[in-house]
Specification:
This protein is α/β, with parallel strands linked by helices. The protein has 2 domains: 219 residues, Rossmann fold (3-Layer(aba) Sandwich), CATH 3.40.50; 68 residues, no CATH class. It is built from 10 helices and 9 strands.
């Protein structure tokens, strides 16, 4: 089995490379991107990921492409035309690579998408499924949805199998952004008014996501499927903070302020997006993934959070 992996310097891509090299052998895993990680020089081909790059030399004798590279979602994107920037990387570059992969005889193309294709929130709704209609107006989510659509059409016309994986928030050792901020808060164990938050959010540990990607590399039932992935253990913000604080060896110090009051104060302070993430729901139904692949997340939430610390 010979693989080509993009995005190998990223949070998810780096973990995928490690697992693939352990499973298939280092010499059978080819990496492509703008820069190389130390120790990977022999397997690396320097390329720009764009809509007009030539990947023919990278794709020779490749069986499976695992496409992790992307222009990732940022909370406050200051690009003049954010959607155009996302489309250039997440759509044009993806489709260009996939078309050349199909022409080179690659059997399967695994695309790491995002739950943002489904939408931003399930508050007042049922959990998202892989069969829901696309419902996102966010530029990042739009670009991922457009890439998915193009890949599905390519699969129909070329016969190359396409596998789409939509993760929610991914956490693990080295995680950054909001999850890292919560970890720091938990380690400091400051008293916070977050005891009474009763929302539910799905997340996925990096190890669980990588395990699913590895399963999809050669599982016959994965062909031309879209899979949602999570830890299959949804948590409220209160429960998550308690687990983090306990993992840090401390007793949680959370105050039972009503969630409605937190929402009101957040609106008054112009922090609606922060409140939405603290108090809103985003749940994922992964029954299709589990049943189709006979798969379940191998790592528990408790153990995965401890690994972060």
């Amino acid at each position: 089995m010979n693989l080509l992996i993009t995005g190998h310097t990223g949070f998810v891509g780096c973990a995928v490379v490690t697992s693939c090299q352990q499973t298939f052998g280092k010499s059978n895993v080819r990496l492509v991107g703008r820069r190389c990680l130390p120790g990977q020089e022999a397997n690396f081909v320097q390329k720009q990921l764009s809509g007009d790059e030539n990947y023919s030399d990278c794709l020779q004798n490749i069986d499976v492409v695992v496409h992790c590279a992307a222009r990732v979602h940022v909370m406050q994107d200051d690009a003049q035309d954010a959607l155009a920037e996302y489309r250039a990387m997440n759509v044009a570059a993806t489709v260009n690579l996939a078309k050349q992969a199909a022409a080179a005889g690659v059997k399967r193309f695994i695309f790491l998408s995002s739950i943002k294709v489904n939408g931003e929130s399930t508050t007042g709704l049922k959990p998202f499924t892989a069969f829901d209609q696309v419902a996102n107006s966010d530029p990042y989510g739009i670009s991922k949805a457009e890439a998915e659509s193009a890949l599905k059409e390519l699969a129909k016309t070329t016969g190359m199998e396409v596998v789409i994986i939509r993760p929610p928030l991914v956490y693990g050792p080295g995680v950054k952004a909001n999850f890292a901020s919560l970890l720091r808060v938990a380690q400091k164990n400051l008293p916070l008014p977050l005891e009474a938050i009763r929302n539910k959010r799905s997340m996925v540990a990096l190890d669980n996501l990588v395990d699913l990607i590895m399963t999809c590399i050669d599982h016959p039932n994965a062909a031309n499927q879209t899979f949602l992935v999570s830890d299959d253990h949804d948590l409220s913000t209160t429960e998550l903070l308690k687990l983090m604080t306990q993992a840090a060896g401390k007793k949680p110090r959370l105050l039972p302020i009503p969630m409605g009051l937190i929402v009101l104060v957040g609106k008054l302070l112009g922090k609606q997006h922060v409140v939405d993430r603290l108090c809103g729901d985003l749940q994922i139904d992964i029954k299709h993934t589990k049943q189709t692949l006979a798969w379940k997340p191998p790592h528990s939430v408790d153990a995965s959070i401890k690994r972060c610390l």
